[in-house]
Each structure stands twice: as C-alpha cells, then as structure tokens.
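COURSE: Structural Biology Practicum
ASSIGNMENT: Worksheet 4, Part C
STUDENT ID: 0417
INSTRUCTIONS: Below are two proteins. For each, the amino acid sequence is given first, followed by its structure token string. Answer the questions at the end about the second protein only.

PROTEIN I
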Amino acid sequence: MTRLFLPFVLGIILLSLLAWPGIALAQGQILVLESQAVADFPDSITFQLKARSHAAITDVRLRYRVDRTSCVSLFNEAWAEFEPAPTVEATWNWDMRKATLPPGAEVEYWWLIEDESGEELETERHSFRFEDNRYEWNQLESGQISLFWYRGDQYFAEELMEAAQDALERLSTDTGVGLKRPTRIYIYDGPASLRGALVYPQEWTGGVAFADYGVVAIGIGPGGLSWGRRAIAHELAHLVVRQATFNCYGADLPVWLDEGLAVYTEGGLRPDFQATLAEAISQDALLSVKTISSTFPSDRSQAVLAYAQSHSLVTFLLNNYGADKMLSFLEAFRLGNSAPKALGMVYELDTEELDALWREYVGARPRPTPSPALAPTPTPTPTPTPTTTPLVITATPAPTPTLMPTPTAMPPATAAPTPTPTPMPTASATHTAAPSPAETTPTPSITPSPTPQPSGGGCWASHSRGQGPPSIDAMALAALVFGLALVRWRRLLR
C-alpha cells in the first residue's frame, strides 16, 4: 500500500513545484505564438503579433528599420493596437500614403512586449521584403543584379540584363564607379503598370531609381525592348552615380552631371536629341551651364536641349580630361564639396570657364562679353524727416517644390524628361507611430524627432528585465520542499 502511495505523493510534489510562483513562470513569462508581416502592395504593410503571458500583457511595441543607405543607423518604434489580456493579438499598420517604400525594399522588425507584472520580452528579429505580390515574378540573376519580370519571354529578360551589365561596364571603364550594393530591377509591362506600383506617381513616369534601397523600377512592354535597353542603362547609371557620391553634408551633383552621365551610359545620344543640339549650336541658342546646374526647363523642347547639352558636357570632360579626373570629380562630391568647389579642385575651372571651353569644343560662338556700364554721377537727395513710423516689408521666399524620383521619360521620344528629385527626410524616432519615409535619392537629410536614446556605441539598448533564470531564493525554496518530501518518503518506506 505504501509503495502504491509513493507515485501519488511524488506527483503532488511535482505539481506544487510547477505551480510555485517565481519558479515555473520565471522560465516562460512571455511566449510569442505568432509574428508576421503582410503586404497590401503598394498601400500598406500590416505587422501582426500573437503572444501569451502569465499576467495581462499591457504594452506591445513594434521596432523596425529599413535596409537603405543612411548616415545613421536608427530604428523606428510604433505602438501596436491590442486589448490588454494574458493572450493578445496586436497589429500595427504602416500606411504607405504617409511614407512610401519602393518595391523590393527590405524591412527588419521585432517586438517589445511587457505584462503588468513588469516582465519584458524583446523578440528575435525578422526580415520582410515589400514585394509587389500582385504579380508572379520571374527572376534572372547576374553578378550583383537581380532582374524581375512577369511579362515577356526569357530572351526579353536576357536582353535587359545584358543592357544592365553593359551599362555597369561602361560606367566602370569611363568613370571608375560601380555598384555599392546588390541591386534589384523590377520590369513592369508598361508605364501604366509601373505607376500602379507607386503611391504618388507622375503621369509621365517611365522609370525610377531608388538609389538608397538599391532598387530600379521601369515600365517596359515586350514590344518596347529597344527603348527598354536605354531606360535600364539610364536608371542604373543614376543609381550607381548617386551611391558613389552619397554624403552626409548635403553636397548635391549639378543636374547636368547627373543626367549627362545617365544619358552617356545609354551608349550614345538619340538622333532627335542630336538634331536639337545641332540646331541650338547653329542658332546660338544654347543654355548656359549655370542654367542647367540646378534644374531643367519645364518646356519640352528646352528640356530635350538640356539633356543633349548635359550629355555633350560629360563627353567633353571625359574626352579631354579622362576617366581618372571624372572619378576624382565624383569623389569630391562624396567628400561634401559643392559643385563649384569640386569643379575648381579637380578641373581648375569655374562654371563660366567650363561653359566657354565646352562651347569651343562643340563649335559654338563664344558668349558675348557685356560692356561695362559707366557709373552714373550720383545726385544728392535730402533725407526727409518721417512723420510716421515707416512700414518695413519683408519678402517671403517662394517655397522650393519637392520633386519625384529621377525618371526615365516614357517612349516615344516626345515624353517630357524629368528633373532630379529632392529626397524626403529620414525619420528616426522612438515612441512614435510615425513610419520612416522612403528616400528615392541618396542625398541625406537627417532630421530626427524626437531625440532617440542610444546606448554606448550608438546602438539601441536591449531591454530584458525579468527574462533570466529563476532567482536563487526560489531555487532554495524548491530544494527545501523537495528535501522534506524525500524525508517523508523514507519514513514511509520504513
């Protein structure tokens, strides 16, 4: 009878140990049952968590960062929506209408969970790629480039990949720059489908380079392969050049250099652009280098001329000064130099001197030098005594528009070219539900809000309160209970 009673006693002891506070629960305070991210491309990403604890879960926060080129490495933090309970289902929705991501952008995310007893859990980190899941993509890889397409045969994709590799080789040979990171190229079946993948597209957008993310997206139908080869080279050049000149000082390339290198990488100027340039040379109607340094004209014919002149300027620099000088020129921007300073450092020219030398190179007439005007003889004017307080008028400067990413004009050639975009700021906030805006150019504009709380070395502190093993006091108490049970058991055996 005593021996039959023994298993019952041991079972009671084990149950009491498992139920003892601070012993069993200390080993599994908060348990993640499910964690995932679901895309509703291109509108949103919904992050979902299901978790359980011995006490009501009172705080669930999502931490995330986007894989992109940046001057600082910070994460964003958002408060999830849920009802406090021992088992919760929490969600947070990233609305892309407030801060967009390009197709193929990669997001790293993890959760911070806390219950009412003070226990905390910081989960493992997971990666999620914001793919355009409306299509079934085919994939072709070569070197650092992955090309994705869903319309067209294998030959179509191989031709575009060859154009991309040729563009990289041309850039490397003639400028010395190359890809800084693996690049994903998404080929939509036309400009309309491409615009459907962007939250705020312009109606003329045919291609976009997201240099910070290593992503290019272009609308190329199977019948537009000839234009597609040029477009893929153009956008890839934008991406490579901007990666090569990325800096944290606000030093931007002049537009003529950025667009000139992109058109140069296409492999030659289009005949209609050549005709426009030749006509402007013959009629002495060229734009000044200074004019096309900050923006391109909105008028189509003048914009075509700006692209043609930019190509010619880049060709002039490469033919007369070589690839090493061009590499040094781009490097000067990476080091934070302004365009006039970089031009003087590398080529020992100012903008007007470059303009004059280039005009001579293309056979254009020199710009007329204005005659100095004689200074008029000043006439003394008495200063009146004011009878009232004068009104001081302060002019308010006109706002500078924010432009979309650098596009490739859609075929046919009559499509309006696009100016280089101004990037949106990088959000780096803690305790806020505001998402991190996407940047379509690598020019940094770090504007944190509110002030983050970094730990040593610039990394974020990881909180793990209450996640360790059972305390020494709890283990001693468990040993005491088990010892008493053994004593009782030996007495029963006697």
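PROTEIN II
(use this one for the questions)
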Amino acid sequence: MRYEKEKQKEDDEEIEVEVAIEDGPSVIEVIKFDLLRDKFIFSDEVFFSNNLYRTIFEEACEKLKEESFVCDRHFLTHPDPKVSRLATDLISDKYQLSKIHAKSIGESEDEKSSRLRERNSLDKLVIRATTELKNAHVMQQINEVKKSIETADTQQQLELMNELRQLQDLKKVLAKNLGERIILKY
C-alpha cells in the first residue's frame, strides 16, 4: 500500500488529502482470469477472431511474470510493426470531451478522482469488454449452429437444437449482464 496526495473539493474549497492507494491485479490479469474462468464458452483456448489480438494477449500474459514489464511501452516499441501500430491506435484518444462540456458536469480530466479519467473506471470497463467479447463469440456460435441445422439429418438436428437452446440461454445471461433488453421471438 502506498499513499498519494490528492486534491479534493470540499464545499467551495480545494483541499489536499493523503489517500491510501492499494495496487490490485493488472488489467491483463483481470482479462485473463475473466476469459479463462468461462473456458466452456471458448473451448480449449481463449478465443480471438483476430490473430493480432491473440498474439498481443498471449504475449502480455507471458510477460506478466516479469516485474519490469510495462505493457504500453512494450507494445508501442514492439519489433512487429503491426503490433506497434495497433498498440498506438488503442492507446491514443481519438475523441476528447471539450473543456466546456467537462465544466458543465463539474469535472476536469486533470483531477485524479475525475469520472472522465478511464483509469478510474477500468474495473467496470474491462469486465464489460470481456463480457462483450463472450457475447460476440456466443452469437457467432449460434449462427454456426443455425447453419448446421439446415444441412443436418434428423438425429443431428435434435442434438444441434439442444446445443442452440443452451447457447441461447447463455446469450440471455450475457445480455442481462450487459444491460441489454431481451426480445424473445415466439
């Protein structure tokens, strides 16, 4: 645990407070845990339809063991130009909230405790992103099973229909976690 000084607003005054900072698991550790815990969705390995994303994820998981590993620095200066370019695209902010709009909600991105800083809501954003990845994969599996049903014989169709039902149940759970509205077709 470490301590940092942080500016906070109290009434109309800005005061400096010492805040305890507890370092938790890294983003990669959270992603790895979340995806591997639901291995039944992804079969034997974590599913990424994009090989470049898979490469980056696997390399980041390997490098976690090194104490000196700094994720953004490593991938920005990666020897593979495709990896480096993707890292640059992912790290850079394409859009920024104007100062006028930030003021209207009473926040400044410069403040460490601001809602506008991604770092302050990473725990929610990372879990949501992994849930969206799982959801996309389940949707892809549902489409594949539906196509297989069309060409299967009667016995295979029964098995595939059962698999489809299980996938649709899983989709409902993921949709609920994502806060999506579920529309059932009868």
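ANSWER KEY EXCERPT:
Q1: The two ends are 55 Å apart (CA to CA).
Q2: Helices lie at 27-37, 39-42, 51-63, 71-76, 81-91, 99-104, 122-151, 154-178.
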